[in-house]
């Protein structure tokens, strides 16, 4: 049976990132039966000589290989999991001065790779899901809270990541056993419409998928998740197949010079039709992090030049195509385009939830208040993202005043941000004369109407801000939808590094966000917010500004895709899976329990001169 065609289990990692964890996850009875390949040698150059599971080669030659090396790992046979302290194996490479220059590669065989262990799964919750006020409910009418993760990769390599390291069934089971009940599954318009054959290397641990096309691989991942009772929320992450997201990557809108709005809608119709009868597919995130696009080269010049004129004929090549919610030219109105795509999705699969991301990297849903989406309310969810760096708001055709002494020289947008961050409370933001150029930091946070080309980034948060200020910021930009029982908001991305505990600013931000998700936020009486963490994968898949094979510092899983990379990180996420208790804690946020927030929301609705948080 092709379903039980043997999979492979592989891992590679720098020796100084040990220990590595070998594991077999197909069933509770699974265990390691053999370690047929182990090699240790000089680490290849970043992004070069990538390990392909099943191929026993090592760029430049291995220093330790074969029976003698593997004898040290005999104790792993018969165990379900086996940690391997790589540093304890010593340095057999005379030309490598320290373990930091070494890489290990290993392959092991699990009992269930060759035996039908029963393939026990888990039932899906009652589906489909529907929106009721600010919460999601299952088909039985009970509150269903999403606590999931992003399974990325397909928007970069045409296949979800991890398939080069373990069988898809084992990966899906691991997702479930860690407590995640939904996967936000990324894809690109390019991948869906061209449906290319996927590179062998990224599927190497799943030989039965070799030679398959992108959509066939997506099918296999979705069916494995359904077997484990895990829901799937499809996410159109990019137009082009590449890493996301940058202001100048020409992927901020739903169209670019490569793909039209019609192409984007066609891609959505294709997927909705394909998964019409797959019960696990319950949601459709129409566009990841929609944002205004400014001409230039992304990621510090690493990306191709993005010509803003190709998106908006009224601006020059290095100007900005300004996306709006429901005003200005219809070609730049996100609500209009997203509603069109949503109707196409619901025509193919009426039971799907469709989610509308906020503007400016999914941070701004203020426009929904006056212009909600014109679709059945039970089918609509809004999406928000929140990161520790989400501290600025963007205002087109506006300016801040007040030059900062000693810092009057203009620079790029990136340079102004770095300077503003370093100046702390002395900097209220920066204004750029045009696009991402001619940017100077400013001291006064009061917005003024500017010229037609000026763009301002205003600082909304300092870093470790007092709880009321942080709560106010989220309520203003998207949390009001929950507080006022207008619609559900799916926090479909947030993330933090493995080392968050040693970073005072990041750990403070995580405490604030955790409080907002749980007992101190707008859904404290409903079990907490719906969320999906970014991301599962422990290894970078490449793409512009990324290095294939490098460790992913935000990834839930280790480089072997066998267990969490960080116990502290996983502990923080599992604490968010618990239903929030009734009422508020005595600490932060207690005095505002259940009260709708209105003052800042109303002020932010005004086109000019909203009250600054620093007055």
Report on this structure:
- The structure is a single chain.
- The protein is α/β, with parallel strands linked by helices.
- It contains 14 helices and 25 strands.
- The strands form 7 sheets. An 8-stranded parallel barrel has the order 9-10-11-12-17-18-24-25, surrounded by 4 helices. Strands 19-23-21-22-20 form a 5-stranded antiparallel β-sheet. A 4-stranded antiparallel β-sheet has the order 1-6-3-4.
- Helix 11 packs across helix 14.
- The radius of gyration is 25 Å and the shape is globular.
- The relative contact order is 0.12.
- Residues 582-615 have low confidence and may be disordered.
Walk me through the topology.
Layout: E1 9-14, E2 20-23, E3 32-42, E4 64-65, H1 67-71, E5 81-84, E6 102-110, E7 130-132, E8 135-137, E9 147-151, H2 154-157, H3 168-177, E10 182-188, H4 189-194, H5 214-227, E11 231-238, H6 261-274, E12 281-285, E13 293-294, E14 296-297, H7 298-301, E15 305-306, E16 320-321, H8 334-348, E17 353-357, H9 359-362, E18 380-385, E19 392-396, E20 398-403, H10 413-423, E21 429-434, E22 437-449, E23 455-459, H11 467-483, E24 489-493, H12 504-517, E25 530-533, H13 567-577, H14 599-605
Parallel strand pairs: 9-10, 9-25, 10-11, 11-12, 12-17, 17-18, 18-24, 24-25
Antiparallel strand pairs: 1-6, 2-5, 3-4, 3-6, 7-8, 13-16, 14-15, 19-23, 20-22, 21-22, 21-23
Précis, in short:
The protein has 14 helices and 25 strands. The protein has 615 residues and is of the alpha/beta class.
């Amino acid at each position: 049976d092709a379903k039980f065609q043997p999979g492979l289990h592989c891992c590679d990692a720098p020796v100084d990132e040990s220990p590595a964890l070998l594991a077999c996850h197909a069933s509770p009875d699974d265990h390691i039966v053999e370690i047929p390949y182990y090699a240790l040698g000089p680490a290849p150059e970043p992004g070069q000589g990538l390990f392909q599971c099943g191929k026993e080669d090592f760029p430049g030659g291995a220093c330790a290989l074969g029976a003698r090396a593997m004898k040290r790992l005999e104790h792993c046979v018969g165990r379900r999991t086996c940690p391997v302290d790589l540093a304890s194996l010593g340095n057999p490479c005379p030309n490598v001065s320290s373990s930091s220059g070494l890489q290990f590669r290993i392959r092991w065989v699990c009992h269930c790779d060759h035996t039908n262990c029963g393939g026990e799964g888990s039932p899906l919750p009652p589906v489909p899901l529907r929106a009721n006020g600010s919460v999601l409910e299952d088909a039985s009418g009970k509150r269903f809270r999403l606590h999931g993760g992003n399974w990325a990769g397909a928007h970069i390599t045409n296949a979800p990541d991890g398939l080069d390291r373990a069988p898809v069934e084992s990966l899906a089971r691991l997702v479930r056993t860690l407590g995640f009940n939904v996967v936000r599954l990324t894809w690109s318009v390019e991948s869906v419409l061209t449906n290319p054959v996927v590179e062998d290397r990224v599927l190497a641990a799943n030989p039965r998928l070799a030679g398959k096309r992108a959509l066939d691989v997506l099918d296999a991942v979705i069916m494995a998740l359904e077997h484990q009772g895990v829901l799937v929320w499809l996410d159109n992450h990019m137009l082009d197949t590449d890493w996301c997201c940058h202001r100048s990557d020409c992927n901020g809108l739903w169209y670019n010079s490569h793909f039209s709005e019609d192409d984007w809608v066609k891609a959505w119709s294709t997927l909705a039709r394909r998964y019409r009868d797959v019960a696990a597919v319950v949601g459709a995130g129409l566009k990841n992090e929609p944002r205004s696009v400014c001409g230039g080269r992304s990621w510090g010049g690493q990306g191709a030049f993005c010509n803003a004129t190709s998106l908006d004929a009224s601006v020059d090549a290095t100007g900005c195509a300004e996306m709006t919610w429901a005003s200005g030219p219809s070609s730049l109105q996100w609500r209009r385009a997203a509603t069109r795509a949503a109707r196409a999705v619901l025509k193919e699969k009426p039971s799907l939830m469709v989610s509308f991301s906020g503007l400016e990297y999914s941070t701004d849903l203020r426009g929904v208040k006056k212009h909600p989406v014109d679709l059945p309310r039970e089918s609509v969810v809004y999406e928000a993202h929140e990161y520790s760096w989400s501290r600025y708001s963007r205002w087109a055709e506006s300016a801040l005043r007040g030059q900062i002494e000693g810092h009057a020289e203009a620079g790029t947008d990136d340079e102004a941000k770095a300077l503003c961050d370093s100046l702390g409370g002395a900097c209220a933001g920066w204004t750029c004369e045009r696009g991402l150029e001619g940017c100077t930091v400013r001291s006064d946070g009061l917005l003024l109407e500017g010229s037609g080309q000026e763009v301002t980034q205003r600082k909304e948060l300092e870093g470790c801000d007092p709880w009321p200020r942080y709560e106010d910021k989220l309520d203003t930009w998207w949390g009001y939808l929950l507080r006022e029982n207008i619609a559900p908001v799916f926090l479909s991305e947030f993330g933090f590094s493995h080392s968050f505990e040693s970073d005072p600013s990041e750990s403070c931000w995580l405490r604030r966000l955790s409080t907002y998700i749980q007992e101190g936020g707008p859904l404290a009486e409903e079990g907490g917010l719906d969320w999906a963490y970014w991301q599962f994968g422990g290894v970078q898949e490449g793409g512009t500004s990324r290095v294939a094979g490098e460790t992913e510092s935000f990834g839930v899983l280790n480089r072997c895709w066998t267990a969490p990379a960080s116990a502290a990180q996983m502990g923080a996420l599992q604490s968010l899976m618990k239903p929030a208790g009734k009422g508020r804690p005595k600490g932060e946020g207690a005095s505002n329990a259940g009260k709708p927030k209105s003052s800042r929301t109303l002020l932010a609705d005004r086109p000019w001169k909203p009250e600054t948080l620093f007055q």
